[in-house]
Amino acid sequence: MKVLIFGVNGFIGYHLASRLLADGRHEVVGLDREDSKIKLLKNSINFIKADIKVDRQTCEELIKESDVIFPLVAIATPALYIKNPLAVYELDFEENMRLIKLCVKYGKRLIFPSTSEVYGMSEMSAFDEDTSRLVVGPINKQRWIYSSCKQLLDRVIWAYGKEDQLDFTIFRPFNWVGPYLDSFEEAEQNNARVVTQFAYDISAGRSVRLVDGGNQRRSLTSVYDGVDCLVRILESKETANKEIFNIGNPNNNVSVKFIAEYIVNWLKTNRPDISIPDIISMSGKEFYGECYEDVSVRVPSISKAEKLLGWVATTNTDDILNTTLSHLFNR
Predict the structure, then answer these.
(1) Which of 40, 86, 88, 281 is most buried, with most CB under 10 Å away?
(2) pLDDT category, 137, cuts 50, 70, 90?
(3) What is the mean predicted confidence (pLDDT) over 105-132?
């Protein structure tokens, strides 16, 4: 089977390509405009350096020649939803819609990344793929543009499938964490996700800024567990076809404050040369601006993945954070 990964140099793309190449059961083709991570795979992957916004003919030819498409190109950093919402719309929605339509045109199987963000501010103890309501904030809270783009893409994909024009699986990652999550260069610009951002801030002597006290809770998931589920989806076409799967670890429901304190304690033990700055609390308005809004808890139900794919997440919070921090500070 020929698997095409758009955004192969990204966090999920790199780990997915690494796993598929290690398994050796599929031909892997990857496209990205950057190669900082993917070059570590040396000559084992068929890599095309290109930009989906510019090299459209190349993208179409690759889709035409492939069997399964993973479009993993997206802006997925909350700070950028607020700073540059139009860029989020143009890349996450418009460019991905074009790739989806090409999958329909050429009859290709699509495995599409949605997001836990689509559940928004829904008040559920555990989000269910088929029954939970998708509730977002008002238009002036630009933070929700990413969620809204992804939700509409989910709905369009579902409609194509309902009309038997597309074989698809939609997956919703819940806070995947692991090596290569983000770079310190991104964190320097305040554009990294929480684990990398906190780690950089501490190592750079910056105060660790907890938005609204860091009481928001997230279900941390090992990227290795997540990729294992993606491989099961890939190799279970009939079972996974026209389904939506949450991919997360409901047992790792921790607060953002816990993550900050874990990193501080990890550094005290493993990098005593680094001086630990203060941990301070600030409002979301102070940190992000007027357009910020958040949800307090985001826990997935993974019963469908367990039932249909035989998959459960097994890596605990300590192992996830220790692996990620060890990579950040030792690479």
Answers:
(1) 88
(2) very high
(3) 94
Q: Which two tokens stand for residue 40?
A: 């570590």
Q: Considering the entire predicted model, what is its pTM?
A: 0.95
CA angle 81, 84, 87 (to 5 degrees): 95
Q: Is 69 helix (H, G, I), strand (E, B) or coil?
A: strand
User: Buried (b) or exposed (e) across 222-248, using 16+ Cβ within 10 A?
Assistant: bbbbbbbbbbbbbebeeebeebbbbbb
Q: Which of 67, 250, 91, 247 is nearest to 171 (CA)?
A: 247
Helix axes 56-65 and 96-106, enclosed angle (nearest 10): 40
Predicted local distance difference test score (pLDDT) of residue 46: 95
pLDDT score for 291: 84
Question: CA-CA-CA-CA torsion for 115, 118, 284, 72, nearest 10 degrees?
Answer: 30
The pLDDT of residue 30: 97
In contact, 174 and 221? CB cutoff 8 Å: yes
